[in-house]
Design brief:
The protein is of the alpha/beta class.
Amino acid sequence: MKNINVLIGCIYCLLFLSFVSKSFAQQIPKLGIVSSISRDSIIHAAGFKYIGESVSNMISPALSINAFESNLEKIRNAKTKILSCNVFFPGSIKIAGPDVDLAKVLTYADGVLSRANKAGVKFIILGSSSARSIPEGYDKEKAKSDFVKTCAELAKLAAKHHVIIALENLQSSETNFINTVRDAADVVRKVNNPSFRLNADIFHMMRENESPEEIVKAGKLLAFCELAEKEKRTLPGVMKDDFKPYFSALKRISYSGYLFIEGKIEHPEVEIPFAFKYLTQQLTEVYK
């Protein structure tokens, strides 16, 4: 009888330890994909809960009130949540360098962020390669100092409208300003506003041969993450890229926020479901 009680006690102990282990296991990042809202059904069926759209398509101040209201209806009826919009600024509105018209920048941004709030869009991704490119030979330190000041003003508007701006690192073939997570994180630190955070784009990190360690150094500045395969910016699984070193870095900072695919989609019915499964498998291997 005594041996049976000991055995039962051991079983309960193992079950308790298993429960504790599962309870303290890190939650994997929440998966989304940048695509048109017209693919909502395919994206939802694949397993994604979030879509990233573009400012110009959904919430730009240039859209008429009727067009914006129509978009709001699409957002309300979508099976997946429109969580983010990218391409914050068009190339015609400079946000870095000598030709910045701050009043114009802030007026436009206020319109975007106001509509983002009405649409329930939580994140505005600040990539905008053309808008932030600076003239060749221009003083990068001055450009960065001025950019920090501009971003500080943008952060105030984001706070007013309860939206988060996420600054994205972009590869040097797209822009000559802020090409790494390290540089983007430095801007975010200097802005020092919870409404202005970091978007670490792993695709651009790989293109710039930037170490996953920079994600660890950025730490709690990170509020968003994007990726695609390195060679042709394909969806995860097309070329079988291994993202696990970057996922390990995310795990080290206990990141369980948003991870969005932003890549070229040629065969959505096939590539989107496979990308969800492919990423989920790699994330599960790392976060287990």
